[in-house]
Specification:
mainly alpha
């Protein structure tokens, strides 16, 4: 969930005239960052090595070799 402060800060960073899409994109981006930071705080992260192993396993399951 976004806060009013985050929305207000996002508005302040935009120029005086802007497209609605610019604001929406910025708010979505900020929401994703906030969600990611919350996930980090909850320990819901994978190390780079874990991700490499997951990708290797997916490729193996699909019959693809490492590129």
């Amino acid at each position: 969930m976004l806060t009013k402060d985050l929305v207000y800060t996002s508005l302040q960073d935009l120029p005086e005239e802007f497209e609605l899409d610019d604001l929406v994109e910025r708010l979505i981006f900020m929401h994703k960052i906030k969600t990611g930071m919350e996930q980090i705080g909850q320990g819901k992260v994978k190390t780079q090595e874990e991700v490499k192993q997951m990708v290797a396993q997916w490729r193996k399951q699909r019959g693809q070799s490492k590129q």
